[in-house]
């Protein structure tokens, strides 16, 4: 928004300093007049016949007082300009950093030196904001690049299938349609996952009372057939666990966790334990599964988009798009909760979700 030009802060402070000194000098002269000169006799003999009278004192004092006032004014202007410059120097650093950030460079930091004061607090807060903003931008860029790559893959496969069919008219059309349907379904699933991730990140959903234990039962009932197909024992325990949020998003969160626990498990004879409880104003969901051992340094990366727990590409019907735990993490954050992942020593993963509870 354009504004009319005005006096700089440095000039305003300089005028304030000079004005303060001038007023202080005028008050001092007024005190001298009120408590000294006014009591000097204004007679030809002066005080007791030996001191000069008021007329002579005023004529002698007035020029010196005028010179002192001019000196105070000039000293206030020069000294105020220097002091204001020194006081506003940190603000200039912050302004330069803000301009640099406005031009697209988020890696710049002020890192102001000196003792803790208001400018140092502002500088540290600005550096912290830049650090978070840079991290968010880098994360979004990486996410966009990964999403573009993931979306390009099914489209490229579709194009290849169509090119092969065009060059070979005798090719089985039924097989072509089936493969195209599989690739198209994967692209649709990925797009819906991206939309859900964006929706949960914004947090603009209606919050209502939700019993997390009922959500777990619904998700377990939906995935029971998948667990039986893979020979996985699905064990659900717990009691009423009330919280507030979106029932749809919380169901997606639980479904993703349980499905991941089933898919990333032992080939046969594995288990998945789901438990809910509420204590101390917190609603807790725990999902624990057996499976292959995970390196501890790999666990924190599982919530990043397009990361898979065991291998980069899965070939079964539940391959997924690498957004399962990323969506879970986003939903948990949107509900003001926390997500903890821990590798089990015997193999598998323990996932703990903590959400604000309700009375």
What does this structure look like?
With 359 residues, this protein is α+β, with helices and mostly antiparallel strands. 56% of the residues lie in helices and 13% in strands. It is built from seven helices and seven strands, in the order H-H-H-H-E-H-E-E-H-E-E-H-E-E. It has helices at residues 9-35, 54-102, 118-167, 173-202, 212-229, 247-263, 324-334, and strands at residues 208-211, 233-238, 242-245, 271-279, 282-289, 338-343, 349-356. A five-stranded mixed beta sheet has the order 2-4-5-7-6, covered by helices on one side. Strands 1-3 form a two-stranded antiparallel ribbon. Helix 1 runs antiparallel to helix 2. It is elongated, with a radius of gyration of 38 Å. Residues 310-319 have low confidence and may be disordered.
Structural class: alpha+beta
What proportion of the residues form beta strands (DSSP E)? 5-15%
- Outline the biggest β-sheet: 5 strands, mixed
**Low-confidence segments, ≥5 residues, pLDDT <50?**
310-319
Mean pLDDT: 81
Record field, number of beta strands: 7
Question: What's the gyration radius in Å?
Answer: 38 Å
Order of strands across the main sheet = 2-4-5-7-6
**Element order, helices and strands?**
HHHHEHEEHEEHEE
Distance between termini?
48 Å
Number of helices: 7
Shape: elongated
* Helix proportion range: 55-70%
């Amino acid at each position: 928004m354009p504004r009319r030009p005005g006096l700089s802060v440095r000039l305003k402070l300089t005028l304030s300093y000079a004005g303060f000194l001038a007023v202080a000098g005028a008050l001092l002269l007024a005190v001298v007049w009120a408590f000294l000169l006014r009591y000097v006799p204004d007679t030809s003999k002066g005080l007791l016949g030996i001191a000069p009278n008021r007329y002579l004192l005023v004529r002698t004092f007035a020029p010196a007082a005028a010179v002192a006032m001019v000196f105070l004014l000039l000293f206030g202007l020069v000294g105020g300009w220097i002091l204001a410059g020194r006081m506003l120097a940190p603000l200039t650093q912050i302004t330069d950093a803000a301009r640099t950030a406005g031009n697209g460079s988020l890696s710049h930091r002020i890192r102001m030196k000196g003792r803790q004061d208001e400018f140092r607090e502002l500088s540290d807060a600005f550096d912290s904001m830049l650090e978070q903003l840079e991290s968010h931008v880098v994360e979004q860029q990486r996410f966009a690049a990964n999403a573009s790559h993931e979306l390009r893959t099914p489209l490229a496969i579709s194009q290849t299938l169509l090119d092969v069919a065009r060059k070979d008219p005798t090719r089985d059309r039924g097989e072509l349609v089936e493969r195209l349907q599989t690739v198209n379904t994967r692209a649709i699933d990925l797009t819906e996952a991206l939309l859900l991730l964006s929706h949960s990140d914004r947090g603009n959903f209606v919050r209502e009372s939700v019993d997390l234990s009922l959500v777990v039962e619904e998700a377990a009932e939906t995935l029971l057939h998948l667990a039986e197909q893979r020979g996985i024992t699905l064990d659900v325990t717990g009691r009423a666990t009330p919280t507030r949020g979106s029932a749809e998003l919380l169901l997606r969160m639980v479904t993703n966790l349980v499905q991941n626990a089933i898919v990333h498990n032992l080939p046969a004879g594995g288990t998945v334990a789901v438990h809910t409880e509420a204590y101390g104003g917190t609603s807790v969901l725990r999902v624990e599964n057996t499976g292959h051992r995970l390196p501890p340094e790999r666990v924190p990366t599982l919530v990043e988009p397009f990361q898979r727990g065991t291998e980069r590409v899965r070939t079964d019907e539940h391959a997924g798009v690498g957004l399962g735990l990323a969506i879970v993490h986003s939903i948990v954050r949107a509900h003001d909760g926390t997500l903890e992942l821990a590798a089990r020593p015997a193999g598998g993963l323990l996932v703990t979700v903590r959400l604000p509870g309700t009375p």
